[in-house]
């Protein structure tokens, strides 16, 4: 297996990838890793300055990276992404539905507007992305989708009703999409991160889930990116409809 100078293998040469929420945090790490393994990567986000900067950093390393403004909850933005991908490559090999937002509100106080917003970004966004891009994924090579869930999807967490519901929904969407798209050779899996050091939880009091995490720390985003790179590579060619839990042991307690 050929590797780049830093020992990372080149499993994704000639693949075309789209990573939502690619401007920063885990999405940026996924974009780095996929590009480092040879993919042409589109970073989609609503944080245009951060996204443009991240794509520029990737290009400065010699990688193929393009930023595009894409609000995952907006069908028209997905249609525009479809047209761009179709015009530039005529296909898509890798889709990482990573964009997400969080809300922490006791159930009794949770407003319908907040509930709808969290569901529309975290779950509907992934649905729209999948539905829109299936025709391009059908034309891809070894096509694979990763949907980012969370340990709060399978487990639930006090104050996280909308977030946990959206992340549990991601698991149902993943399993069903895997069944429907298997005949097309498109694999669909979920990533289930535990605590990860990113801006989304920078304000969390008391280290969030760290006290309940056997490895005693949050993950670095690159540790999740390694899991995504595996799932979308041919190393995972018989892996579909499952969940890859990367949580420092949180779920074993
Ligand atoms: N950090 C954690 O501890 C943790 C744990 C489990 C799961 N997750 C999930 O991992 C994913 C990545 O989060 P992160 O930790 O990198 O946090 P983050 O806040 O750094 O990244 C989330 C990204 O999604 C983007 N985004 C938000 N709304 C969007 C929209 N409507 N359209 C497009 N992009 C949008 C943000 O701008 C941001 O770039 C999220 O789905 C999150 O729920 C995070």
TrEMBL record:
Gene3D superfamilies: NAD(P)-binding Rossmann-like Domain (3.40.50.720). Keywords: NAD, Oxidoreductase. InterPro entries: KR_dom, NAD(P)-bd_dom_sf, Sc_DH/Rdtase_CS, SDR_fam. GO terms for molecular function: oxidoreductase activity. Coiled coil: none annotated. Residues 15-194 form the Ketoreductase domain. Pfam families: adh_short_C2. Belongs to the short-chain dehydrogenases/reductases (SDR) family. PANTHER family: DEHYDROGENASES, SHORT CHAIN, ESTRADIOL 17-BETA-DEHYDROGENASE 8-RELATED. This is 3-oxoacyl-[acyl-carrier protein] reductase.
């Amino acid at each position: 297996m050929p590797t780049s100078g830093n020992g990372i293998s080149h499993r994704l040469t000639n693949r075309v990838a789209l990573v939502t929420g690619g401007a920063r945090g885990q999405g940026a790490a996924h974009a780095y890793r996929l590009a480092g393994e040879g993919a042409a990567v589109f970073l989609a986000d609503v944080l245009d300055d951060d996204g443009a900067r991240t794509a520029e950093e990737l290009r400065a390393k010699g990688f193929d990276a393009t930023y595009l403004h894409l609000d995952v909850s907006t069908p028209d933005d997905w249609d525009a992404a479809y047209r761009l991908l179709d015009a530039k490559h005529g296909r898509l090999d890798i889709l990482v539905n990573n964009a997400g937002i969080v809300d922490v509100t006791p159930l009794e106080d949770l407003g319908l507007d907040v509930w709808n917003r969290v569901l529309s970004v975290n779950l509907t966004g992934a649905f729209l992305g999948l539905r829109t891009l299936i025709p391009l994924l059908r034309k891809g090579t070894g096509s694979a989708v990763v949907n980012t869930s969370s340990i709060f999807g399978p487990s639930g967490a006090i104050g996280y009703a909308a977030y946990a519901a959206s992340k549990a929904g991601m698991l149902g969407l993943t399993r069903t999409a895997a069944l429907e798209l298997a005949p097309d050779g498109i694999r669909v899996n979920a990533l289930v991160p535990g605590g990860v050091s990113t801006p989304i939880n920078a304000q969390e009091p008391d280290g969030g889930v760290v006290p309940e995490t056997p490895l005693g720390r949050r993950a670095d985003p690159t540790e999740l990116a390694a899991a995504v790179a595996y799932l979308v590579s041919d190393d995972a060619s018989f892996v579909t409809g499952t969940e890859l839990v990367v949580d420092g042991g949180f779920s074993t307690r």
